[in-house]
Amino acid sequence: MASKLLQFPIQTIKTSKPLSNFRQTTSILSSSFSIATQHQLQFICYYTDENPHTKSRIQCTLSPSSSSSSPKPPTTKEEAILQARTSLFSALEKPLNNPKLAGKIKKVKQPRFRVEIPVIDDAPASLSQLAVEVFGEMPLRRKGSTIKILMLWPNKDSTQAAVNAFNSHSSSDILVQNIDMSSILDVDIRTANSADVAVFLSPEVSQVAVMKRVTDSMYPKPAVIFNPRWGFEEEANLGEMKGFVGSFDVVYSFMGLEVRGIFSKRNGVVFKCVKNGVSSGENWYVLVEEDDGNLRVVSRFKSRPPISEVENVLYNLMAINSPVTKSAKFLKDLVSNVTGKK
C-alpha cells in the first residue's frame, strides 16, 4: 500500500552507535524543525557504543496502538498547513486582543511561539508561498483596528519573493510588512515597535542576535520563529543566546523520519501539536508507519527529544521485528533447549 506520509526530500544521518552490531542509519526529512495515549508499556532500551564494556540506558514509553484522543499528524501538505495555522492562530488570538499588552506592564511574559513545517525546498518562492498560506489565510481579527504583522526574512531574495506573494493576496484584517532581517537595524526601530507581532521566517543561526534585539524592542508584543534553519541539536552551542531561543514555545512541529536497517526500513514522524494555543505539557510523539500505511504511536516524551534518543527508540523497535533479531532469539532458544540451560 502506498505510504500515507508526506513526501519530502530526505537527508541521511549516520549514527555512531549502531544497534546489535549491525549498521543502521536514520534519515530526517528536510525541515527546520517533531499525543496522549492509553495503556502505555514502559521498558528499558539498551545500546552499546564502540567500547564493549560500556552500556547506555534510556527509558522509553511504547504504546501498542494509537489513541483516538491523540492529535493526528497530517497526511497531506494542506493538512500540515491547516494544523500549523490553527495552532498558531489559537496562540496569537488572545495576546493580540489583550488590552494589558497595549502598555509595557512589568512582569508580563512576552508571548513567544515557534512553528516548524517541512517544505519541499528552501527556495524563496516556496517559503513565501507557505507564509501566505499560513499567515495570509489566518482568521486573526481585532475590533476597531487592523493587525499589523512584521515579517523578517533572512535575505533580500526571500524578502522580494514575499513582497510579490503578499501583493497578490489582500486582507482587510491583516496588514503584512516584509523586511530583510539584515537591514532591520538600519531602519528606524519604531518600524518594529509599531507592529503587533513579529515573525522571523527561516532565520539563520547567525541572525539570532538580531532576532533578540527586535524581540526585546517589541516587548510585550508577540514574536514567532517560523521554520528556523538551524537544527534543534545546534541550540546547545548558542551560548548566551540558547536561553532566548529556548524561550519560544513550540506550538506545532512535524518532522519526518526514516530508519534503515540491513533488511528493512521504517518510516515515521516526530510530532507535536498544541490545539488550544496554550502549551500545557503536551507531549512530543514518535509514530511509525505500519504496513497498511497507518501511523502508530511508539513513544512519547515530555520534552523535545534529541535525535539520538529518537534513533535509539526506533533502532530497538526495528531490532524486535528484524529477521536478524528473530533468528538470534530462535537460535538462543534452540541452544537452551538442547543444553537445558536458561
How would you describe the overall organization of this protein?
This protein is α/β, with parallel strands linked by helices and 342 residues long. It is built from eight helices and 13 strands. It has helices at 77-96, 124-136, 156-167, 190-193, 208-218, 242-246, 307-321, 323-339; strands at residues 10-14, 25-29, 41-48, 55-62, 112-116, 147-153, 174-180, 197-201, 223-226, 249-260, 265-273, 284-289, 295-301. Strands 1, 2, 5, 6, 7, 8, 9, 10, 11, 12 and 13 form an eleven-stranded mixed beta sheet that branches. Strands 3-4 form a two-stranded antiparallel ribbon. A hairpin with a 6-residue loop joins strand 3 and strand 4 (55-62). Helix 1 (77-96) packs across helix 2.
Task: Write a brief caption for the model.
By secondary structure, this protein is α/β, with parallel strands linked by helices. It contains 8 helices and 13 strands.
Question: What characteristics describe this protein?
Answer:
342 residues, alpha/beta, two-stranded antiparallel sheet, globular, disordered C terminus
